[in-house]
Amino acid sequence: MPAKKPVGKPRTKQPKKVKFITTEIRCQEMSKGGLAYEVILAEPVGVPVPRRADSPEKTPSVEEIQEKLKAAEERRRSLEASRMAAIAQKMAKIEEASRIRSEQTNNFIVATKEALDAKMDSHEEKREAYINELRARLKDHLEGVEKTRLTLEQQTAEVYKAIEDKMNTAADKRDENIKKMLERLREHEEQVRKVRAGNQERFQQLESAIQDKLQQAAGRRLQLEAEQREKLRSYNNKLAEVRSVITNKMEEITKDIEVKLSTAEQNREKEIQKKLDFVKKEERRAELVRQNKSARAESEAPTSG
């Protein structure tokens, strides 16, 4: 029958896993003419790894410790100097800011005072100009009244003169004309009295109006002065608050610096104490080593003899 082809992948023979067992071979001479070998199957003997000899611990000397302490002290001093320089720089900045703030405050106060004085002077000049203008108007009005009075007196004199002339020329009609003229003079005097009363009343009204305006100007001036004083008071209060805040911050920074310096001093003292304890401990250990060496040398001395 024809051979069937294998279906799928051909199987390949896998090599068997071989366990390698370490062996120990010993050789022993059994006779004069040959050698006999003995094969022993056993576990491999582990070769111990040679240990590295411990290096003797180096004990720092007192001079090295003092040099280290000196270097640490120098580093601490340099650190403290740098901190104090930084603090001094901060304080200088704070003082400079305070000085600038004080200069700005003084400049603001001076400028405000100058502006207020200028405003007051301008208001005073305007008030004086207004009063002078009112006085000039009143003077012009009085001059007009005086001119009217003089004109009326002149007219009256002319009327009297005309009456005398008419009395001289017309003796018959003298009484009637005199009566008429006296009536006209009475009416004229009444009109002059009314005009004077009206002028007097207008003068009083103008005087009262001037007084009212002067009182109002004085009130406005007092109000402006009060407002400016209130502004200056509020600004001074704000300035006092800012100064108190800066003072509190400076006190907090100073306290923080003092706490840090005290903590650093305590840590330095602890470190120095640790190093001194270590030095004392090493000195005691060296003393014990010397005592042991001397005791060993004393115990070995008789045996060697």
TrEMBL record:
Name of the protein in its database record: Stathmin
Originating species: Euphydryas editha (Edith's checkerspot)
GO term, biological process aspect, one: regulation of microtubule polymerization or depolymerization
SUPFAM superfamilies registered for this protein in UniProt: Stathmin
InterPro entries: Stathmin_fam, Stathmin_sf
UniProt entry keywords in alphabetical sequence: Coiled coil
Any one GO cellular component localisation term in the record: neuron projection
GO terms, molecular function: tubulin binding
Coiled coil: 62-89, 113-198
PANTHER family reported for this sequence: STATHMIN, STATHMIN, ISOFORM D
